[in-house]
Amino acid sequence: MRIDVLTLFPEMFHGVLGSSTLKRASQGSERRPAPVSYHLTNIRDYTTDKHGKVDDRPFGGGPGMVMQCQPIWDAVMAVERLDQRPAIRILMTPQGCKLGQPLVEELATRPRLLIIAGHYEGVDERVIEKLDPILRLSIGDYVLSGGELPAMVLIDAVVRLIPGVLGHEESCQHESFSPTRGRLLDCPHYTRPRTWQGVDVPPVLLSGDHAAIEAWRSEQAVRLTARFRPDLLRDHPTQGAP
Ligand code: ADE
Asked: Is the pTM of this model over 0.85?
């Protein structure tokens, strides 16, 4: 997969894309090509304004600045030409649909993502309309100071699902929101020591009975979900079934 990020702050991405799983995913070996490549583009490099301006005050008044159409449009057109693979265009914005694991799974199957990180008060609506089809994506109902952190969240969520990125040890098979957990929260986890501050690990986990362990984990996943995210149980497909 190729991931292009268009941003005014490419330096914000270096630490995140250059560490841990996201770094490993972009490194190939003799045994396999790199599952993903990252390409950062500074939108400011595409402005035709001689002072490097990329934003202006909002028509109609109000606080903050709005990112202008021209630099974003020219950057997207130039970057799309760099590779023949068709890109899913994505704008990170609080005014979008909310990211969830089913969409993350879908995006992880695509050959190319082009992510625009908006900044300041927002992006001129006309360029968003002109870039249609484009997915307006929010990572939650709160406002951050720009789309960069949301873009990193999206990249992390997607890249770890690309086959070959996670090792067996850290597999994404049974985890919160995964289909194998019924899109519920994951079960609780325990490791050594067996007793810590007088609290024992649930004995079933030491039993070696894999069927019993899996049944216990499923039950615990439902308990945790009922406690912390009852909304997930209400939306559950088995809810209301006889
Ligand atoms: N930009 C600012 N806040 C955001 C959010 N919650 N999701 C996506 N992009 C954003």
From this structure: yes
